[in-house]
Amino acid sequence: MDYIVELLHGDKLTVSLPARLPNGRTFPLTVAGEDFTASWDRQTGLLVLLGKNGLERTIRVRSRHVGSDQTSATTPVAAEVWLGTTKGVRTLQATVSPDVPGQEQRRVAAGNREQVVRSQITGKVLEVLVHPGEAVAAGATLVIIEAMKMENRVFAVAGGTVLSVAVGDGDAVQTGKELLRITP
User: Fold this and answer.
1) I need a surface site. Which of 10, 26, 96, 122 has the fewest CB within 10 A?
2) What residue ranges define each of the domains in the chain, with the CATH number in brackets?
């Protein structure tokens, strides 16, 4: 299946991989037109890519968070990856969506509408970090929600201006509750 991966800094990559990553077995992987034979070890978070030229690249995913939004086909992904001893640890933030015909036109149309940010969990709002009229960048922390004694941050998927805030510090929220709206 083909996916469009849009990195936080704006680069877009097309990634082709199986619908399910087989743990410990090889599978074909294509990134931006370059073909690899890959293997994934779920337990260690190790992804090994073997290129057609015989060059092997090892990527260790140290931590990852995959968000979900039932109102969109786009999935926010944040990961901390180790690219080898010389390159160190990098933080990766991106949005991933299936590559579907006509998707770019739908994305442009959606970009012209306001974004409704909803709670992905049930909990208590610890802190609202933005106010109406404030400009926010993609990836900015908007709200912190406490659930099961853990702080969960809600991030902006796209940049824009905060149109309205529907919750305040100390409010109880349910999954799907509107937190705020952002205009492009």
Assistant:
1) 10
2) 2-103 (no CATH), 114-183 (2.40.50.100)
